[in-house]
User: Fold this.
Amino acid sequence: MDMVAKSLGEENNTGGIHPLKFTLWLIIISIIMMFAAFTSAYLVRRAEGNWLEFDLPNIMLISTVIIALSSVTMQLAHNAAANDNIAKLRLMLYLTFGLGIMFLIAQWNGWSELVGNNVYFGGVTSNPSGSFLYVLTGVHGFHLVTGLIYLAIVIVSSLRYKVHSKNMLRIQLCTIYWHFLGGLWLYLYLFLRLNH
Amino acid sequence: MSSTDISINKDVHHAHEEHDHHHDQNFFEKYIFSQDHKVIAKQFLFGGIFWGFVGGFLSVIFRLQLGWPEATFAFLEPIFGGWIVNGKLDPEFYLALVTMHGTIMVFFVLTAGLSGTFSNFLIPLQIGARDMASGFMNMLSFWIFFLASIIMFWSLFLSTGPAGGGWTVYPPLSALPQAISGSGMGMTMWLVSMALFIVSQLLGGVNYITTVINLRTKGMSMTKLPLTIWAFFLTAILGLLSFPVLFSAALLLIFDRSFGTSFYLSDIYIAGEALANTGGSAILFQHLFWFLGHPEVYIVILPTFGIVSEVIATNSRKPIFGYRAMIGSMLGISLLSFVVWAHHMFVTGMNPFLGSVFMFLTLIIAVPSAVKVFNWLATLWRGNIRFTAAMMFAIAFVSLFISGGLTGIILGNSALDIQLHDTYFVIAHFHLVMGAAAFFGMFCGIYHWFPKMFGRMMDEKLGFVHFWLTFLSAYLVFMPMHYIGIAGFPRRYYSWTGFDAFNTFTDLNSFISIAAILGFTAQLIFLFNFIYSIFKGRRATANPWHSNTLEWTTPVNPGHGNWPGEIPTVYRWPYDYSKPGAPEDYIPQNVPFSQTQSSNLPYERDLE
Ligand code: HEM
Ligand SMILES: [Cu+2]
Assistant:
């Protein structure tokens, strides 16, 4: 799959940044706009009253810690690749992947906790305050799955010795995206904490 | 993902490049799943033209109903079957017609068809790049658009009809399948199609921005860019920031429809029955929708700003007046377009103080808009004007933009809007300033760049006939609508003969409908000219309009990679027309100052 046109790296690159990296930043901006829409809708809607107050699942604090840790291991993987430490690179990638899965499981348990407290996504007894929580975590979770898929691609290429100090683009993109997903969750968590 | 391996080793890359120029592509690679920006541009163009005719046809049908409310249309039965009952249009079908007309025109023709065609075609050619940053994403963008198109088109044939809640799909109407048949399956398919459409626009837009930032040829600084590129660039940024918001809004609507949430629903009685939904807010949807919706109208019009600037400068044989002011005003408009959305919501019970804030911001948009109009007129002023078909459309664009823009200032006053909201005055406003103007800009672009797209010229005489008929009917259709709009004639009403106040407008409505049919028929002339010229048109030269921008330095039929040899270097801005002292009345961007000593200005001597 030749994702980049043949023109690249050729005569010109006026941006001083790899076009794919630039593209990734643009995609990140569009995701940010999506969540900006959700969170401002949340605030506007909340201000109008008839808003069910409930406690955030405690496990979400744990998922926050997990995803923060995964950002650390992702960064370590990146640095290991830069230093051509292939064994450490793989270890860190596996760890990141594992932590990513754990995060999703923790979020899932968070949802079960909500259901246990009679906070539902839809249905007759649901209130937008609960539905919003499901939407925010669900859409974030969806993006985390895309991050995991990309991470899997990087793992496969590291097994083929294609990730090293002279071939950093893949893991750089992955690291940027992963940190973004972590940062996004941190923002959502703080947002929810402050607005509960 | 061979890219990453390539980018670290440029020698390998060059070998690959050479190889590619001689590589014979099969039919599929070349015309169907092509990654070449020129082919993708044409795919979008054909798609846009197809949708344009569908959207236009739907409008003719509902104009029949509005123009002759007492008549029966039994002759339509073979086409619409159950939607025509005893020769009368089904009222819900009428709503579906206006909804689909709006959706198709705004999104599928004037967003995808317009940006998709001209951004794809012109960005690499005018900035001096071999292709888009990612040909693969570009191809994906078209095919996702294609999929969205199929779903939308399919929904036209559902037995319950396509979506019927207006192109703005306001809930609760759109959220409750039991409300009207147009909120059932048709609405579901509308949402799915639009979700895909948004993904397609984002893929395209991300590519346009990356390409403009990263792949400009040597010497092509941002202040040497043709105004077309600035316009496409800003359009893509607007899309990148606003389409995800529509996506969020649509997602919540989908949840409300299919998963029992209540984001937009509260305290609703339908068919005498109370719904369980509590706590939702329908106004919330309007805020989210118009946060996209208003930038969207500029996504439609900005590309044509660029196209028209380019065509007017070329055919006036004069530098564009106020190049930097043109860029500045486009930046200003783009910025402001994000802070005016609530002018669509003045009558929703919004806090009047908030209304006056939005009124103030809205009226400020008139300033950069006026700057642009002034600059176009000043460029035409005492120019050596060549009246090509493209130029006619460009000048008419300015006229339509002025006429429609003026009524925007009236609507922008929150007090006046109480009377005018949801009347034909609004319809007249946005059809002149957006509908007609953007179509004129699109025609202008097609007539002007046709030679580069297909290597042949379109017929100018047919072009003039097309132009005059379209221009006349545009004004004949929309001018009277102001009048009935001020009288309070509401939009989206299937039948108005029950209201004594409006019966006096029967003749006027028939008149509008006749003009609309005339306008639609005129497009067949265009279609004929377009198709005929692709195969049989007069052969074009490499630079038929004596234009300065880089696309005209390519061969008549540019191949894969655009320039057979090296990419040209840029030395000057794109508007050196009729420069005093120069032997010709144009100096292309790739001519160095050392070759134009007779015409160089004092400060340019240093660059020789
Ligand atoms: C001087 C600049 C403009 C001003 C002050 C202005 C103001 C307004 C206002 C206040 C409305 C809402 C009317 C109502 O619903 O009661 C409106 C509607 C609209 N305007 Fe403009 N406008 C301007 C330029 C434009 C441009 C350049 C476009 C498109 C290219 C545009 C497209 C539209 C559309 C599509 C609607 C109606 C949407 C709908 O309700 O279906 N306007 N305008
Ligand atoms: Cu607006």
About this structure: Chain B touches chain A through 70 residues (CB under 8 Å). Residues 329 and 368 of chain B are 5 Å apart (CA to CA). The mean pLDDT of chain B is 91. The pocket of protoporphyrin IX containing FE (ligand 1) is lined by residues B 168, 297, 300-301, 343-344, 362, 365-366, 369, 405, 408-409, 411-412, 417, 420-421, 426, 429-430, 433-434 (CB under 6 Å).
